[in-house]
Amino acid sequence: MRKVLIIGATSAIAEATARRFAAEGDALYLIGRRTERLEAIATDLKVRGAHAIACEAMDVNDVAAHSAAIDRAQAALGGLDTVLIAHGTLSDQAACQHSVTQTLAEISTNGLSVVALLTELAERFEDQGHGTLAVISSVAGDRGRQSNYVYGCAKAMVSTFTSGLRQRLSKRGVHVLTIKPGFVDTPMTAAFPKGPLWAQPDAIAAGIVDAIRKQRSVVYLPRFWRLIMWIVRAVPEPLFRRASL
Amino acid sequence: MAVEGGVYRSWGRYPAVGNQRIFRLHDRFAALSISTEVQRVLPYGHGRSYGDVCLNDGGGLLHTRGLDRFIAFDVVTGVLRCEAGVLLAEILDLVVPRGWFLPVTPGTRFVTVGGALANDVHGKNHHLVGTFGCHVRRFELLRSDGERFECSPHESADWFGATIGGLGLTGLVTWVELQLRRIANPWIAGEVVRFHSLEEFAELSRAADGDYEYTVSWIDCAAAVGRGLFMCGNHAPALSAERPQVSHKKLRVPFTPPVSLISGLTLRAFNALYYRKQLAERTTAITHYEPFFYPLDGLLEWNRIYGPRGFLQYQCVVPVEGGLDLLHEVLGQIAASGSGSVLAVLKQFGDIPSPGWLSFPRSGFTLALDFPNYGERTLQLLERLDVIVRTGGGRLYPAKDARMAGDFFRQSYTDWERFSAYVDPQFSSDFWRRVME
């Protein structure tokens, strides 16, 4: 039985992952924004076999609340083995281009709040000397594209931060996992037309559980995105500039 | 609520409807915010009904698969409460290892609980336990005006009766509470008996009804005599003699062939072979519940074999009295037409009434057939069958229908008028508009 904290637990990928933890009888602590939905998910996970479950509402942008929330999770579970950070919002790129406030808010939710949480968690995991910090970044963080570079730069921050953190904490036996999903068919992406590149949340969840078990460093989910993003990164800037991705 | 477009079909792939707005539901607490550009909506579960009860051309579909959370499961009493988009397959995965089973299951486990309720589905145990709706303890109904009813046989009983078998028209069912059935293990002790005539079938059925919880027959409808295989079974006792395992590898029909693979020739060959699949007249075996209840679930997307034009299902029920003569007539018509059905399924329903006003099953013989869609030729054959069924006082199953005439529906579902007062003013379906014409 693992003791798992999930932040952003109402997201579709987090919920699908939590169901896999629950089926294995893990103890779970869920943090999300909306109490009613958190409780519905918690009840479901209990029925599915979670050993113990508790939840609390928190806004990740309320950085001052992080430390106490993690304390409560740790106390409720009797320690922490695995943390999954899964919250995020899909930024409205066009709106961000006309609003400094909105741009900074998106970067705060998708990037800074994750950095804040990881800073807090890294201290504790460094002390305990074991466990996994699994963080959902995105393929969007691999290269800025005109269609979503605000979201992309926040995710680039997460990818870079976790890369450094992984180097630091691996010496203390702590596993840091960077998860880069491609297009996932979730409520967050409901407005997009879906094509063959789109994956279901449960397929991503299976990949996350597998990557945690195998202590992987960086996973693209589904795996073919590693190749796609390798190509996207390899396109020379003069060519990339003229494209409209 | 999320909005997107795309073609949605029913399992028969006939008719195909592209002109629908899709609203994907994820939160059972949220109100139905139906945008003004969409006039009417209809809940859509997993799209396993065959005709047009799950389609709504020019309107919206409330896609319920995102409502897939369990709410409570009491392992002592077997009472399960879950959201309406949970699949029966997901319930089985959860409850079978804990010693419980669905009280009633249709021939596929890939349907949602809400769909099972709205179509008041039946199974091989209808003669003993009635329909799915007989085991629904309560559910919540959300109306387009935001009102919520908690319905049971005792509270909001009229909404309970209207909604069970109500084809999704009375509002959105958000969650359902079911009474499950105890089992000792996942195995079924089954028996298969060959019969050579409908009279022999009726005799087997009568003899087995008391002894077997599950009975159903496959019938060779390429041969007009009414020969077939009678299959029956019970849940195995705690000390099962055998413990067969089930493979989780599934085959899939990879693409839709340009024409139907089911033709007069393949059909006669298949039927003749299947009829002789066992050498003995009577065999017994212990099987896992999956192949026993869901032989077709092992072949994913099997509906593709009928080609791009799809197929039509035809399921009728006729009274016991005079029923065999009617079935003879039906089989005669089909054999004469040369366009028979691969999966002709015959069963005798019991007389346990359903709480649902528009529920299909009633005491009598039920015959389910599927026909590749050859256009006018097929529709004319089905109309000839209608005349036989209608004259004999029978009726058709809406969940499988894409073409029955409105006056046939209204004549055979006498509660339709009382029911229509409970239809949500913002809900409708292709089926409902068709039979109200």
From TrEMBL, chain A:
GO terms for cellular component: membrane. Keywords: Oxidoreductase. It comes from the Bacteria. This is Short-subunit dehydrogenase. GO terms for molecular function: oxidoreductase activity. PANTHER family: DEHYDROGENASE/REDUCTASE SDR FAMILY MEMBER 7B, DEHYDROGENASE_REDUCTASE SDR FAMILY MEMBER 7B. Belongs to the short-chain dehydrogenases/reductases (SDR) family. The keyword Membrane does not apply.
From TrEMBL, chain B:
GO terms for molecular function: FAD binding; oxidoreductase activity, acting on the CH-OH group of donors, oxygen as acceptor. It comes from the Bacteria. Residues 15-183 form the FAD-binding PCMH-type domain. Keywords: FAD, Flavoprotein. InterPro entries: FAD-bd_PCMH (IPR016166), FAD-bd_PCMH-like_sf (IPR036318), FAD-bd_PCMH_sub2 (IPR016169), FAD_lactone_oxidase-like (IPR010031), Oxid_FAD_bind_N (IPR006094). Pfam families: FAD_binding_4. PANTHER family: D-ARABINONO-1,4-LACTONE OXIDASE, L-GULONOLACTONE OXIDASE. This is FAD/FMN-containing dehydrogenase. It comes from Plasticicumulans acidivorans.
